[in-house]
Write a structure and sequence with these properties.
Layout: H1 12-38, H2 46-70, H3 72-100
Length: 102
């Protein structure tokens, strides 16, 4: 029998899956919101978009480094989301000519 003062510890694999999921979906949510509000107005200079893109990449790297020190699985979820995003962009760029031809 266990004494009542011993607390039940959550399953570590469950916690790591939850942190990974939070990092994965949180990255998409926060970056999506940023780009929704940061898009330049039609007719504005393209340099604005380039500066915002570079700033966003640097901000993502800084956030990733900070989160990697604090919560490793959360950072792995963020990296996973970045990889999925890059693969999606590559696939869309390869499929764009095929889609336009219809």
């Amino acid at each position: 029998m266990q004494p009542e003062s011993v607390k039940q510890v959550s399953d570590p694999s469950r916690i790591s899956r939850r942190e990974f999921s939070i990092g994965f979906f949180g990255w998409f949510l926060l970056n999506g919101l940023f780009w929704w509000f940061a898009m330049p107005e039609p007719g504005s200079l393209g340099i604005i978009l380039v500066v915002r893109f570079i700033g966003m990449v640097l901000l993502n790297l800084l956030a990733l480094l900070i989160v990697a020190v604090v919560r490793r699985n959360l950072a792995l979820g963020m990296v996973g989301a970045c990889v999925v995003s890059v693969i999606g962009c590559i696939l869309l760029s390869l499929l764009a000519p095929i889609i336009r031809s219809y």
